[in-house]
Amino acid sequence: MSEQGFSTKAIHAGWDPDERTGAVNVPIYASSTFAQDGVGGMRDGFEYARTGNPTRRVLEANIAAIEAGRFGRGFASGMAATDALLRATLRPGDHLVIPNDAYGGTFRLIDKVFTEWGITYSVAPVVDVEAIRAAITPATKLVWVETPTNPLLNVGDIAAVAEVAHAAGAKLVVDNTFATPYLQQPLTLGADAVVHSTTKYLGGHSDVVGGAIVTNDEQLDSDIAFLQNGAGAVPGPFDAYLTMRGIKTLAVRMDRHCDNAEKLVEFFSAHPKIEKVLYPGLADHPGHAVAAKQMRRFGGMISVQLTGGREAALDFCARTKVFTLAESLGGIESLIEHPGAMTHASTAGSLLEVPDNLVRLSVGIEDADDLLEDVRQALA
Ligand SMILES: *Cc1c(COP(=O)(O)O)cnc(C)c1O
């Protein structure tokens, strides 16, 4: 049988209709403990729900399948997944390389927490493979990549960075939250692990916080599983259920996010109050060729820089009506925010500081005409 398509896996992987009841959907197993048939006689491998829960296990198999990976692990948030992955791969004295516009929370965790435990890091532009090679030291164990980046929409060449990392004996991790596995599958491009904030596009409805790690590396997965149980930042069964419910429609949602984003990009590109549009789908975007090579389409995130500086950017954010002023991204509803004052405020004064005339839009799946009219009136 030929390999199944993306949506078939997204809808079916990990679960067949329940043998006993025929339930088409995976039940929410709200049970913290599991009866044993005699001491040590676990049924289906479950004993205690921090270690393993049947609903979570289905989510983990499903996410692994859609990321083209063998092993998936669910976490209570994207940051919990990031934390577990850093702890599974780094020891005191080790060094890692991170992009100059990494997710603010990832940077903060490394800069404020991991450095206290003897980890050092260097910042390199994700677009520049030679700069990443130059930032690697004999102590480098990990190269961290986000592509496209948040909020500057820079694009890194995953296959090229994987080669550079592996040549130095380091692992490559890709935060695939922005692209989602529908648009880009880092493991097939050479990454050793993928991390997700499932809070965003995978959940897709702004109603659940979660994270996940997928890898093909059995040792790495076993180290992650140890931390998942040992530190305990696990998602509850209802969270796992909601995330799976979102994943089933990921492909149709992503296509609509991309359609709407393309229309808005066209509008912004011709608008006099917009100084610059950052979107990898634009032919003159510096990362366009790489994005076209490794992504199916260019995603639902757009950033724009306004001609009127910080005031104009804050004003734009305040005046939209369909676009809600809020942090986060990847939901069905359109959101707008000012990264310098909101999501990326913690990067002020650091190497990861973002321009103050920058506005980030998470383009939802509403009717494109309503979104266009909304940004038109907000910029008028
Ligand atoms: C939101 C986000 C995270 C953190 O995930 P949480 O679920 O909020 O903990 C990490 N990386 C990226 C790219 C994100 O957008």
From TrEMBL:
Ligase is among the record's keywords: no
InterPro entries attached to this UniProt entry: Cys/Met-Metab_PyrdxlP-dep_enz, PyrdxlP-dep_Trfase, PyrdxlP-dep_Trfase_major, PyrdxlP-dep_Trfase_small
Concerning Pfam families, the annotation shows: Cys_Met_Meta_PP
Q: Does the keyword Amino-acid biosynthesis apply?
A: yes
A GO MF annotation of the entry reads: pyridoxal phosphate binding
| Cofactor(s) named in the record | pyridoxal 5'-phosphate
Q: Which residues carry this modification: N6-(pyridoxal phosphate)lysine?
A: 200
Provide the alphabetized UniProt keywords.
Amino-acid biosynthesis, Methionine biosynthesis, Pyridoxal phosphate
GO BP annotation list = cysteine biosynthetic process via cystathionine; methionine biosynthetic process; transsulfuration
Question: Which domain of life does the protein's organism represent?
Answer: Bacteria
Q: Name one GO cellular component term.
A: cytoplasm
Catalyses which reaction(s): O-succinyl-L-homoserine + L-cysteine = L,L-cystathionine + succinate + H(+)
* Enzyme nomenclature, EC number: 2.5.1.48
- Similarity comment: Belongs to the trans-sulfuration enzymes family.
Q: Which NCBIfam families match?
A: PRK07811.1
Q: Which protein, by its recorded name, is this?
A: Cystathionine gamma-synthase
